[in-house]
Amino acid sequence: MAENKEEVLEEVLEDLEKEAAESEETTAEDTTSTEEETSEEHTEQTEEESESDDSASDEKKGFFKKKKDKKDEQIEDLNDRLKRQMAEFDNFRKRSEKEKSQMYDMGAKTVVEKILPVVDNFERGLAAVPEENKEDAFVAGMDKIYKQMMTVLEEIGVKPIEAVGQEFDPNFHNAVMHVEDEELGENVIAEELQKGYMYRDAVVRHSMVKVAN
Q1: For residue 193, how many other CB atoms are within 10 A of its CB?
Q2: Binning pLDDT at 50, 70 and 90, where does residue 2 land?
Q3: Which of 12, 41, 132, 151 has its CA 20 to 30 A from that of 172?
Q4: Among candidate residues 132, 172, 66, the one with its CA nearest the CA of residue 192
């Protein structure tokens, strides 16, 4: 009976040892599984945090990029406006200079028109002087004044229009008479009744002429 009891006890102890060993294996497996799950969760959390950081970084970059692009657009807009204003100012300056030149020419032309009758009177007066009196001091003085006036007019761009012997041109000549002259060709100026003058490239006064048919 004692041997049977010992055998029973040994069997019970063996069963307990087996159960204890199985329990330890189960606990180890559970611990390993838990650690693996914890590690995976930590890895996933780290990846999510990394993605979140990357996303935040991209958002920051995009934000600053947008700010920079807007600033560049403003700079380009200001440059375009500046270029347009400079072009407009340059056109205004050129237009002003042209208008100023035209106004100066108009004013000078008006002054020349008023002086021409004085020139005509000088020429008529000198032409009416008898040949024997042309050496008089007074006549010589008037002739010098006339020549001086013509020199000044020439210096500012006033010059007489060629007429006698030239072909009639309505842009420069004003025909008031027609004559029959076989020695002259048709439409050729036979005589100048009043001198015409030009100021630079503009006609101040047309020549009054007699034209051959």
Answers
A1: 12
A2: very low
A3: 151
A4: 172
CATH superfamily assigned to domain 158-213: Head domain of nucleotide exchange factor GrpE (2.30.22.10)
| Better pLDDT: 120 or 68 | 120
Which pLDDT belongs to residue 3?
Answer: 47
Model confidence over 95-149: pLDDT tens digits? 888 888 888 888 888 899 999 999 999 999 999 999 888 889 999 999 999 999 9
Q: What is the CA radius of gyration of the chain?
A: 59
- The DSSP-derived string for 19-77 is HHHHHHHHHHHHHHHHHHHHHHHHHHHHHHHHHHHHHHHHHHHHHHHHHHHHHHHHHHH
Reply yes or no on domain 62-156 having CATH 3.90.20: yes
Q: Model pTM greater than 0.90?
A: no
* Whether the predicted pLDDT of 52 surpasses 70: no
| 211 Cβ neighbours under 8 A, 6+ residues apart | 168, 173, 175, 177, 178, 179, 187, 188, 189, 190
Q: Are strands 189-194 and 173-179 parallel, antiparallel or unpaired?
A: unpaired
Return d(Cα 213, Cα 204) in angstroms, integer: 27
Helices (H), the chain: 2-127, 137-155
What phi, psi does 134 have (nearest 5°)? -70, -15
Strand partners for 209: 175, 192
Q: Locate the domains of the chain by residue range.
A: 62-156, 158-213
